[in-house]
């Protein structure tokens, strides 16, 4: 669009930048309590935060004017209040301001060598003072995205920048306008947006507000009219004018107008309602069930609110009941998988009745009906006119031969993890693994040779499943083009090695695992037949390791005590020459050890190892001469870290 003069339109107007107001701290505190899980896309979070900043200030301004002790020079209601919030996102995850140097390290190393997005959400509140001293607010918001790519950052570079102190108060841990500029390879889009304010987009917006008679249908922004105190309820009518119900302190009824499509209107207003209801505690406002997990799988600590009638809230009870019933749901999944319910249903397009399923799985009709109905309630099956069939979720992950099948992993959970967890109380009391105790009963009843072979194959199948699901994300997490040979220590069936050779045509991988495992690997189909994956049997604590440029340790170290880890890392360090790589893949605990719960629940199994954060791994590796080059939170089940031998 052609940009017309706009700044002159502001002359004589009182413009307030919300973030610069004396109430900034409180506003930011309020804004920072926003639950990111509520937002479908990161930019929505930035826009919402900007709205809250602007609205808070706009709503307080007339109040400030009435305060006798306030030293304000502006006794007038502002004409415009502007709020802005900038966030950095990587692979859909919002990176906030680092809490400490380790956090800054985690953030900056995750940005290293990658393109990320910087979003600034901007909210413009136009205040229209009426004759009766009431104020109407018109809210216009928009966002701007800029793509930024970081260069590959060496360890020294990262720490030099972190030690400058600059990252600490900056979203994403860097400031492009200062020292942080040296980290940046390119910027696609508005540079000032990365600095914190998309001036060009803002001017275009002012142009639309003050100069243009252009229809608003082509605007990306949204406009909402608010009541005096900014309260509104969920829109209830289909046209574009919605009545809002005021809270007790608000003036009776105001109108909300928005020049946009109906669907957008509902979505936008809902977000605003949700956020405002947080501030006002207005229980008539729209309520959504919050997802209890963060994007990294940490269960959120949600406040329990006691309604006035003293009754517990439905959502609070639901959260406790979900935990109570969690084991029932797991066991229903295990049983349906073990009894091949999903495979049976897949073999009959159009579905089966409960009696037919019962016949196929050789089970009672009553038991089968209960199992099928429970699976429907868990979203694993769907039913229509008494016929049952798989949902997309079970077709993708629960069939025995699906490319991303997790069935063997489920059977491993049923036959190994479940018995261990049924001894959890003893495990916690004694602080040692209950594995032998839990599994001795099962093996007592069976022929020892066969049972040990069966359980080994079951374990290998489970590892194979997970490697197929996670392998590609790990193999492609870093640029490995400088490595020619790799050794996957504890590489099991070779499924992970297959993903590495698939992703890196110049790479050959030797899988190193215990002799019994290497013997049994013939039960597993290799992905390729071009001989770039070979197998060597041995014990990585005792035997010489095959020579390689890159060592891979996937899901090995969490099972090692600090002493064993020390032995293994010393052996790898001895085998490495400077420049060799070590690629580690594990669940990295958050630095505050509050999540992800998958990692912490795994630790509860009380094996001899322990779960560690990326920084803990990084320090352990550093003590063996490996410098962390990159850390990736892949968003898949496992995270990854690439270290280089100094
Ligand atoms: C948890 S599994 C991980 C498998 C594979 N790395 C993956 O991520 O899919 C651990 C693997 O380490 C192997 N392993 C355990 N101790 C070993 C040792 N001392 N020497 C060699 N391999 C070992 C096991 O046989 C098993 O295959």
TrEMBL record:
<dbReference type="InterPro" id="IPR016461">
    <property type="entry name" value="COMT-like"/>
</dbReference>
<feature type="domain" description="O-methyltransferase dimerisation">
    <location>
        <begin position="322"/>
        <end position="398"/>
    </location>
</feature>
<dbReference type="InterPro" id="IPR036390">
    <property type="entry name" value="WH_DNA-bd_sf"/>
</dbReference>
<dbReference type="InterPro" id="IPR012967">
    <property type="entry name" value="COMT_dimerisation"/>
</dbReference>
<dbReference type="GO" id="GO:0047429">
    <property type="term" value="F:nucleoside triphosphate diphosphatase activity"/>
</dbReference>
<feature type="region of interest" description="Disordered">
    <location>
        <begin position="227"/>
        <end position="313"/>
    </location>
</feature>
<feature type="domain" description="O-methyltransferase C-terminal">
    <location>
        <begin position="422"/>
        <end position="626"/>
    </location>
</feature>
<dbReference type="InterPro" id="IPR003697">
    <property type="entry name" value="Maf-like"/>
</dbReference>
<dbReference type="InterPro" id="IPR029001">
    <property type="entry name" value="ITPase-like_fam"/>
</dbReference>
<keyword id="KW-0489">Methyltransferase</keyword>
<keyword id="KW-0378">Hydrolase</keyword>
<feature type="compositionally biased region" description="Polar residues">
    <location>
        <begin position="286"/>
        <end position="297"/>
    </location>
</feature>
<dbReference type="Pfam" id="PF08100">
    <property type="entry name" value="Dimerisation"/>
</dbReference>
<keyword id="KW-0949">S-adenosyl-L-methionine</keyword>
<dbReference type="GO" id="GO:0046983">
    <property type="term" value="F:protein dimerization activity"/>
</dbReference>
<dbReference type="InterPro" id="IPR036388">
    <property type="entry name" value="WH-like_DNA-bd_sf"/>
</dbReference>
<comment type="subunit">
    <text>Homodimer.</text>
</comment>
<feature type="compositionally biased region" description="Polar residues">
    <location>
        <begin position="227"/>
        <end position="250"/>
    </location>
</feature>
<feature type="compositionally biased region" description="Basic and acidic residues">
    <location>
        <begin position="298"/>
        <end position="313"/>
    </location>
</feature>
<dbReference type="Pfam" id="PF02545">
    <property type="entry name" value="Maf"/>
</dbReference>
<keyword id="KW-0808">Transferase</keyword>
<dbReference type="InterPro" id="IPR001077">
    <property type="entry name" value="COMT_C"/>
</dbReference>
<feature type="compositionally biased region" description="Polar residues">
    <location>
        <begin position="266"/>
        <end position="278"/>
    </location>
</feature>
<dbReference type="GO" id="GO:0008171">
    <property type="term" value="F:O-methyltransferase activity"/>
</dbReference>
<dbReference type="GO" id="GO:0032259">
    <property type="term" value="P:methylation"/>
</dbReference>
<dbReference type="InterPro" id="IPR029063">
    <property type="entry name" value="SAM-dependent_MTases_sf"/>
</dbReference>
<dbReference type="Pfam" id="PF00891">
    <property type="entry name" value="Methyltransf_2"/>
</dbReference>
<protein>
    <recommendedName>
        <fullName>Acetylserotonin O-methyltransferase-like</fullName>
    </recommendedName>
</protein>
